[in-house]
Amino acid sequence: MIGVTSVRVAEILAGVVDGSPAMSSLPERLVRACAQALPVTGVGMVLMTDNGPAGTVASTDGPAATMEELQYTLGEGPCVESSRTGRPVLQPDLATSGPARWPGFSAGALDAGIRAIFALPLRVGAIRLGVLDLYRDLPGALTDGELTEALSFADAATTILLHLQAQDSPDGSESGLIRVIEDRAEVHQATGMIAVQVGVSLAQALVLLRARSFAAERPIIAMARDVLAGVVRFTSDEDGRIHGH
Q1: Rounded distance, CA 50 to CA 35, Å?
Q2: What is the pLDDT of residues 43-78, one digit of tens each?
Q3: Order of strands, sheet of 116-124, starting from the edge strand that comes earlier in the sequence
Q4: Distance of CA 229 to the CA centre of its chain
Q5: Residue 24: which of 126, 161, 207, 133 has the closest Cα?
Q6: Are 71 and 156 in contact (CB under 8 A)?
Q7: What long-range pairs does 19-25 form, CB within 8 A, spacing at least 24?
Q8: Is the N end or the C end of the chain the one with fewer CB atoms within 10 Å?
Q9: How many H helices and E strands in the chain?
Q10: pTM over 0.90
Q11: Rounded Cα distance, 160 and 194, in Å
């Protein structure tokens, strides 16, 4: 099976690269190819760190982008669990068991029309690179053969992420991964400002930023930029309660 899987990964990579060798376009081409090869509605690829999601590298459609943005903003969801455990998280019926595991994420995902999610970790040994998320607009599990195919796409996605991280973009173009890293830097900067404003730890400040983003129904990167621009500030009152305004 290992040999067959390796051959299939090579075939996937060859198909993705064929006709478009530019590294910056490979994540988008891979998620589209994955969605076409499997009985799923859409696919997203996210960058992960030890602290959770770092941003979306590629997505096939609006619900896939919403799925990844929710996990990034809330810090919970199948991709977070998959990255943490290093194992696939297969959720064939999100409405049935998702709310108990990821209440905030499940509510938003179901509103977006997502009914099943399959999160596959992208790792090299113990090193977290990302997660490949597949979703369906109807409940239903993947067959063993379909899961094997999905895991082959995950291996191909891991290879692409490794190559992207090694690229220096000599032509000056901006890859999806570079944009993700820049977005992550803005979130980290905003988290530091919030920590100083209300005198809490960086971990607590990130929780505050995520909560504010969720309450305002805005992406966390947009809220982070407002914090950096001084449009949004966090303060604590005499009772120790923290407010964002």
Answers
A1: 27
A2: 999 988 777 777 788 999 999 999 988 888 888 999
A3: 52-59, 42-49, 127-136, 116-124, 89-91
A4: 25
A5: 161
A6: no
A7: 22/173, 23/160, 23/163, 23/164, 23/167, 23/175, 24/169, 24/173, 24/174, 24/175, 24/176
A8: N
A9: 10, 7
A10: no
A11: 35
